[in-house]
Design brief:
Blueprint (H helix, E strand, L loop, with lengths): L9 H8 L9 E5 L5 H9 L5 E5 L3 H10 L5 E4 L16 E6 L8 H14 E11 L5 H7 L2 E7 L6 E7 L2
The structure holds S-adenosylmethionine.
């Protein structure tokens, strides 16, 4: 379920956030924060009137994040990533989804459900940003998004690929 040997580096986090325009991207979802390395970076960058919804299924990570993060812009949610729609308004759409989920170790149905849910909840101009340790997710993400740009960093253990996906 965790799908990682250690928390990600700040360097990978900075790469994950490098294509986000925090002056415009104000409704943000993070999937699979773990210890919150990326969550802290997002909180430092997000606008005063932005909102961050954080989905973490693991009890220990959820409890630790909930007790540590006390910011009115942030909601820590103890639910699975394929249920984003339950936590946004009926007419609301997301600017960004930042995902650390270990997609390729998920069962096929969950993998599809998470990717479809993120896509459906994003604005047409929205961004889906995912890191993985391999290029295995390329086909899956290209089947949904018109553009999938991949960055790579060795400043993480293990080295990681960042997928930047947009609808147009
Ligand atoms: C690879 S870890 C990434 C943690 C952290 N973002 C980092 O990069 O160090 C994946 C995280 O996704 C969480 N997770 C796994 N399945 C999930 C699901 N269906 N919904 C929400 N979170 C999930 C795990 O509990 C874990 O915290």
């Amino acid at each position: 379920m965790v799908g990682a040997v250690s928390p990600s580096s700040k360097s990978l986090g900075k790469k994950m956030l490098s294509n986000i325009d925090f002056s415009k991207d104000k409704l943000i979802v993070e999937l699979g924060p773990g210890t919150g390395v990326f969550t802290d970076l997002i909180i430092n960058k997000m606008a005063d009137d932005a909102r961050l919804l954080v989905f973490e299924l693991n009890d220990n990570f959820y409890n630790s994040l909930s007790s540590r993060i006390n910011d009115p812009r942030v909601k820590i949610i103890h639910d699975s990533a394929e249920f984003i729609h339950k936590y946004i308004g009926e007419t609301e759409k997301l600017d960004v989804v930042i995902s650390s989920l270990p997609l390729m170790v998920f069962p096929e149905k969950l993998r599809q459900d998470v990717v479809n849910e993120s896509f459906d909840c994003l604005k047409d101009t929205g961004k889906y940003i995912q890191f993985q340790y391999s290029l295995q997710s390329k086909k899956l993400l290209e089947s949904k998004y018109d553009q999938v740009k991949i960055q790579f960093t060795i400043k993480n253990f293990p080295p990681a690929f960042v997928y930047n996906c947009t609808k147009k």
